[in-house]
Design goal:
The complex is a heterodimer of chains A (318) and B (361). By secondary structure, chain A is mostly helical. In chain A, 75% of the residues lie in helices and 0% in strands. The model of chain A is unreliable at 1-16 (pLDDT under 50). In chain B, a hairpin with a 2-residue loop joins strand 11 and strand 12. The chains are: A mainly alpha (318), B alpha+beta (361).
């Protein structure tokens, strides 16, 4: 008898040191992460719900009622139907897409070319490496002012061009609709190619050297090695790099706003600039909420797609 | 098929001479093992044959053709890397087809060749498997197949068995040797494992510190090491070497080993050469050839290693230490005095100053 009781007592002792059921462990985990969860809820879920709520009303800070009473101004999804018919919105979206379609591929190709260059050794590599990374460290607003100055009609860009052609060049970069867009894209490419370069270089040095040698021994030339070994091995990292830049570029704002303010007219008005203007100048926040939500959905789709590809890529070790 | 000639080959990395000098003739269709401890220059030699590294000086010829300046992709060399360097993002089929595809072979031709090589290497059922989830023995066969499909005249293997566990290594050794018979190529096999070299190679090139020590068949290298390094390196354990002074006795020329006493007389064919050499010598004999005897070198037993089939008895200490290997168990125990005698025919003598073997007649 006493032996049996001893065993039971021992069992109880053991039970106390370990969580009795998996459920108890989960509950403890929940309690421990609760503060963090509340914080996340406050900074992400709450604004999202608030935005969703306001987006179906005509509420604005000038309405004279608190946002929580915005239901009084319920407009039965008029913001969303307005959005569908808002030509300024659609042209801003189109412009954003154009900027993205030019900038991201340009940054990718330049970054890849530079990464390929830096994967091998050459004299002065470290110095060039540091110089190359510098644009990324410049505050975007400062970069905006820098390019604003560079592209003045009497500025250094025209000055250099005039030396090349041997006559005076007075191109009004920032007041011509097309040239302004080009100038803005140049600034973005300048600032963000280094990030692309850095990510792609990390991927490039991760390509196993012996597999490259094996490919060479099997008769693959440099281009074949690049397409059959390097690119497939870098697929995951390329998707990450592109996803980061697509999302970031979609939100292009600071550099651009300082350079052109979205102008001349609306020539460089991207989606972020448009939202900013509607928010600060027109003050129709219900509408702003609707626009922002629409964009959030688009970007989320991109992000989810990229993350899926990343997860898929992770199954295959390099 | 192709013979390989290495002529006055050297290679330096900055101040470090990885390969001091190398002259080696590898015959057409021969299986040559480059054997040596790590850092001996064997891999450097192989990389130069493959064209991955340029020699600092000297020449490499495949048959009559000088390979200087010929890039590695055009040398017609098959190379199996130590870790196989399989393209992990491809299937087995894509790996095998890689070479022909890069050289622009037609689809039907590629399929035919992949099918044939897969059949030969028993890879057919695995052709559509992703290469990153295969076991080491299959990876190795894929690596061999990927090179073999190019029908290279020369096959280079860089320690292909070093990642494999001991039991599997034995299987692979047989498999590799059979493959070489099938392909009939010139094979150069780099290894630090003498067992691999001994069992597979037609001839072994023993290397140390960037210098070629000896080239010969496995038995030549084992029985008649050219110098002290080879004597110690080949065999497990290596040859016993005892320092001593040749001395005349009424039974013939013997070696005076100082405190260990005097050896049995040297064989008649060796004696004149030892007399001519003068100076101190190293008296060498294989541990496997030692027998317990009435007369011979009497030494205290310091340690007994019993490893089943064999028993290794360690005798003496320091400079005068000797190992003796016996089939099965032997009645020695630590502290006992054992009298050992190498048969006269198995004795090898080395010049203590130069380390070179003193050759008979």
């Amino acid at each position: 008898m006493s032996a049996v009781t001893a065993t039971i007592a021992e069992d109880k002792m053991e039970a106390r040191t370990k969580p009795a059921t998996p459920n108890e462990g989960a509950r403890l985990g929940f309690r421990l992460t609760l503060p963090a969860q509340i914080l996340v809820l406050f900074i992400s879920a709450f604004p999202l719900l608030m935005q969703l709520y306001i987006s179906v009303t005509d509420w604005s800070p000038l309405s004279g009622i608190g946002w929580w009473n915005a239901w009084e101004m319920w407009n039965s999804f008029a913001n969303y139907t307005d959005l569908a018919a808002d030509t300024r919105f659609w042209s801003a979206l189109q412009r954003t897409a154009i900027v993205m379609l030019v900038c991201v591929p340009a940054e990718f190709l330049l970054g890849l070319a530079l990464a390929t260059l830096f994967a091998d050794d050459f004299p002065g590599k470290r110095i060039f490496y540091s110089i190359l990374l510098m644009p990324m460290m410049v505050v975007p607003a400062v970069a905006g002012y820098m390019f604003f100055m560079l592209f003045q009609s009497g500025g250094p860009v025209n000055d250099i061009l005039s030396r090349i052609v041997g006559g005076p060049v007075t191109i009004a970069w920032l007041s011509d609709p097309t040239l302004a867009l080009i100038a803005v894209m140049v600034a973005d490419i300048w600032q963000w190619t280094p990030l692309m370069f850095l990510i792609l270089l990390a991927g490039l040095v991760g390509v196993p050297e012996d597999q490259m040698k094996a490919a060479t021994l099997l008769g693959a030339n440099a281009w074949q090695r690049f397409t059959t070994i390097v690119l497939p091995k870098m697929k995951t990292i390329i998707i990450i790099a592109l996803a980061i830049r697509v999302i970031e570029n979609f939100k292009i704002f600071d550099t651009l706003y300082i350079m052109t303010g979205g102008g001349p007219g609306v020539a460089t008005e991207t989606i972020s600039v448009y939202i900013y203007k509607v928010t600060t100048q027109d003050l129709i926040w219900g509408y702003v909420a609707a626009i922002a939500l629409a964009i959030l959905i688009v970007l989320s789709i991109v992000a989810v797609y990229a993350m899926k590809r990343m997860a898929k890529g992770r199954e295959v070790p390099v | 098929m192709s013979a390989i000639h290495l002529k006055n080959l050297t290679k330096s990395f900055g101040d470090f001479a990885a390969l001091k000098t190398m002259d080696l003739e590898i015959a057409d269709g021969e299986f040559m093992a480059l054997l040596g401890p790590s850092g001996c220059g064997k891999s450097t030699t192989m990389n130069m044959i493959a064209g991955m590294e340029e020699p600092t000086s000297g020449r490499i010829l495949f048959g009559e053709r000088d390979m200087a300046g010929v890039p590695m992709g055009r040398r017609g060399v098959g190379f199996v890397f130590q870790n196989y360097a399989i393209f992990t993002h491809m299937t087995v089929r894509q790996n095998l087809a890689y070479g022909p595809k890069m050289r622009g072979a037609a689809k039907a031709e590629i399929d035919r060749r992949v099918g044939a090589i897969a059949e030969m290497l028993q890879l057919s059922p695995l052709l559509d498997r992703k290469a990153d989830r295969l076991s080491v023995n299959i990876l190795q066969r894929v690596a061999i197949g990927r090179s073999a499909i190019m029908e290279p005249a020369i096959f280079l293997l860089d320690e292909p068995l070093s990642n494999v566990d001991a039991a599997f290594r034995a299987v692979m050794r047989t498999e590799l040797k059979q493959l070489q018979r099938q392909f009939r190529q010139t094979m150069v096999y780099v290894t630090h494992d003498q067992l691999e070299a001994m069992t597979m190679a037609d001839r072994i090139a023993v290397m140390d510190h960037g210098v070629l020590q000896q080239v010969g068949t496995p038995l030549e290298v084992y029985n008649n090491p050219a110098n002290v390094f080879v004597a110690r390196f080949i065999g497990a354990p290596g040859m016993n070497l005892l320092k001593g002074m040749p001395a005349e006795s009424d039974r013939g020329l013997v070696v005076d080993l100082g405190p260990l006493g005097v050896t049995p007389p040297l064989p008649d064919e060796l004696a004149p050469a030892v007399r001519a050499a003068r100076g101190d010598v190293l008296y060498g004999f294989r541990p496997e050839q030692v027998t317990l005897a009435e007369r011979g070198l009497s030494m205290p037993v310091s340690f007994v290693e019993r490893i089943g089939a064999r028993t290794i008895v360690h005798l003496g200490e320091g400079e005068g230490a000797v190992k003796a290997v016996f089939e099965n168990d032997v009645g020695s125990s630590v502290g006992q005095i054992a009298v050992v005698a190498p048969p006269a025919s198995s004795v090898r003598v080395f010049d203590a100053a130069t380390g070179l073997a003193v050759k008979a007649g």
